[in-house]
Design brief:
This protein has about 70 residues and is mainly alpha-helical. About 70% of the residues lie in helices and about 0% in strands. The protein has one domain. The radius of gyration is 20 Å and the shape is elongated.
């Protein structure tokens, strides 16, 4: 079994290139692969944590500006 880190967009592009199908058929193949567990989705936790940190920093910035004004 080959492990790769790819986004859904990248997977659909590979399916379209390898099989020569359109977007709709690539979506069907992708969904079938998910159902058969040929493709496993995992959350990229480092990205999630990064977004949470940046969101918190943004909220703190707005709060500080609100208190100053």
């Amino acid at each position: 079994m080959k492990l790769m880190r790819k986004s859904k967009k990248d997977c659909l592009k590979v399916i379209k290139d390898e099989f020569g199908v359109d977007d709709e058929e690539a979506q069907k193949i992708f969904k079938r692969a998910l159902k058969n567990k040929d493709i496993i989705l995992k959350v990229n936790w480092s990205s999630v944590v990064t977004y949470i940190i940046w969101g918190t920093v943004g909220l703190m910035l707005f709060w500080v500006l609100y208190k100053v004004i």
